[in-house]
Design goal:
six-stranded mixed beta sheet; alpha+beta; about 500 residues
């Protein structure tokens, strides 16, 4: 492949010339300013010089302010008011499958289901009628490091949403009979997930990267045996230790008033204890990359994922790896308009190396994975892996200052789009950030961190994460002739960038 970003320049140059208007005063320069591009996200960029502040485009200074209040029971309450009549209220709890072990794996996800089975004051039907009559959307999801319960409704029902979430999280009927009835539902959900090859491949990748005894390798839904044997006592113990104030962020995004919202949370979450018997633990267990593959020619395609070790959510390389993900892009031959134009996507399309590929970062508390996922024919599976690794080397060797700045403009556009998205995605981002960093990172700070990354720092990041390293490998389907673990290891070796 040629220079990886050449094919993108025509698309992004217009953004540079129009949207990226600088308000720099005459004669100012950023050359001698300190670089925050490689500083940990836990460390706020608290102030800028006048010169640095003037360098930030004006539209980054006009994004909504996030207000945060910590209650006496340690709950953090955050709001971000924006236009419109819709309010999204989310309760984000820093507890997920990483807080489990082999014996209680699946507990966090099981509790997500139990929240909607009725409370001491409402039956399951009452909850459904309340939502239907007031146009409230109620949802929940469980991940590896957190669990979220969210309600969305019109401005006038914001208090109802907070009260409802407080009720289901503090007063749910977790009876033995309700638990028994839910077991079959969750087993059916697990069966459905296990029929999704992408989900199965990701589970295999986590096992390949961390080893089966690591909590990060546990499935979110839990092993079938654990689900069948789930008991009320196990669920209540998890609530006692994990559903506590120090692990909880309650977010209001959209049509919300901060002072009113804080009072709602005080009123309806007063029974939440400040702390539990177990505190948030690190997930920085050893990264033990291995190879996990399942040969099944009936599948007809090779489904492959490579996982490279990266830092957690607060890692200093966070935005550099965001840049790399953008430079590599994605490709789907069935959806060419949804594909991004990059050096790698052009090679994949022109040489017909795969049906699709995607690149994404999975971040946890102290560790993460940079993942390359592809679906390809057996005869081209090795070639798409070669093209991916070669493209990273091309970027590291050929990227110059001019094109590097153009790629930053793509990130700036993504930052702005994130601040004007729907209130659900905004609430989700606020909850995730406060759980991870203890604060909300402003669009202004994100811009300044990205702008401060130097080309030298960026290439050092690529060298650290992709040169002469050992990734975890997961493969399933028609992968009998897919290159060996040792061969993939050798492919990462190259001359210093």
């Amino acid at each position: 492949p040629g220079l990886s970003i050449e094919s993108m320049l025509s698309r992004v140059s217009r953004f540079k010339n129009s949207a990226h208007k600088r308000i720099r005063s005459p004669g100012t320069s950023m050359v001698n300013t300190p670089s925050f591009g490689a500083s940990p996200l836990l460390t706020p960029v608290r102030s800028y010089s006048v010169q640095q502040h003037q360098d930030i485009p004006s539209y980054f200074l006009k994004t909504p302010v996030t207000n945060v209040t910590t209650l006496p029971n340690n709950i953090k309450v955050a709001t971000e008011k924006s236009f419109g009549e819709i309010a999204t209220i989310g309760v984000y709890i820093g507890a997920g499958s990483v807080d489990e072990n082999r014996e209680n794996n699946g507990t966090a996800h099981f509790l997500e289901h139990m929240a909607f089975k009725g409370t001491s004051k409402r039956s399951k039907k009452d909850i459904e009628l309340l939502c239907e009559n007031n146009n409230i959307l109620l949802n929940a999801y469980t991940g590896r490091i957190s669990t979220c319960f969210v309600a969305q409704g019109f401005r006038e029902y914001a208090e109802n949403c907070v009260e409802l979430l407080g009720d289901i999280l503090q007063n749910s009927k977790i009876s033995n009979s309700n638990v028994r009835n839910e077991i079959s539902v969750i087993l059916k959900e697990k069966e459905s997930v296990e029929n999704d090859l992408f989900e199965v491949l990701l589970e295999h990748l986590h096992c390949a990267c961390f080893g089966k005894e690591n909590p990060l390798a546990l499935t979110i839904l839990g092993e079938s045996s654990n689900i069948r044997e789930m008991k009320r006592d196990r669920l209540m113990e998890f609530i006692k230790n994990k559903y506590v104030g120090e692990r909880m962020v309650i977010v209001g995004a959209g049509a919300v008033n901060h002072e009113e919202f804080v009072e709602y949370v005080k009123k309806y979450f007063s029974n939440i204890k400040p702390t539990g018997e177990s505190h948030i633990t690190s997930d920085q267990s050893s990264f033990i990359p291995g190879d996990l593959r399942t040969v099944d020619k009936v599948v007809g395609r090779a489904h492959i994922a490579l996982g490279f070790k990266i830092g957690g959510l607060s890692d200093k390389y966070y935005f550099m790896l965001w840049l790399l993900k953008t430079m590599l892009g994605e490709y789907d031959k069935l959806n060419p308009l949804g594909s991004t134009v990059t050096g790698l996507s052009q090679v994949a399309m022109e040489k017909k190396l795969c049906d699709s590929y995607s690149v994404f970062n999975s971040y946890y508390r102290d560790v993460g994975l940079f993942v390359f996922h592809t679906i390809a024919k057996a005869e081209t599976a090795n070639e798409i892996i070669d093209a991916f690794l070669q493209e990273i080397q091309n970027i590291a060797k050929n990227l110059d200052e001019h094109n590097f700045e153009i790629m930053k403009n793509v990130i700036y556009k993504q930052i702005i789009e994130a601040t004007v998205g729907n209130t659900f995605s905004i609430a989700d981002e606020i909850g995730r950030q406060i759980l991870s960093y203890g604060r909300r990172i402003s669009a202004e700070e994100v811009y300044y961190r990205v702008q401060s990354i130097t080309l030298e720092e960026y290439k050092a990041c690529l060298d650290t994460h992709f040169n002469d390293v050992v990734p975890g490998v997961a493969a399933l389907g028609d992968v009998e002739n897919f290159c060996s673990f040792e061969e993939i290891r050798e492919k990462t070796k190259c001359k210093p960038y």
